[in-house]
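Before relying on records like the one below, remember that each one covers exactly one chain. Contacts with other chains, cofactors or solvent are not represented anywhere in the record.
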Amino acid sequence: MVVEETGQLIMATSKKIPERNSLDTAICPLCGESNQCAMAADPEATVCWCEGVVFPEELLAQIPEIVVRKTCVCKNCLDKYHESINTTDLTS
């Protein structure tokens, strides 16, 4: 993950984001790792870790349009985003 001078977070990954017809909802669209989504893991699940957190629009804007709101960002990417914002605020 890299933060540009503009404050935009860029995910550094060699993993390819899946095509629409092969979308794996258990994979984070930013880093390609498991997103720990309870609902992707178990169709009977009714609660997931992500329901109690807010995903900033700036973070969601970095997700490829074909997967926005179709698969979850992982907690690690969410935490890194918040860290980058805090670091950016300190250097401004």
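The helical segments are 38-41, 57-60, 75-91.
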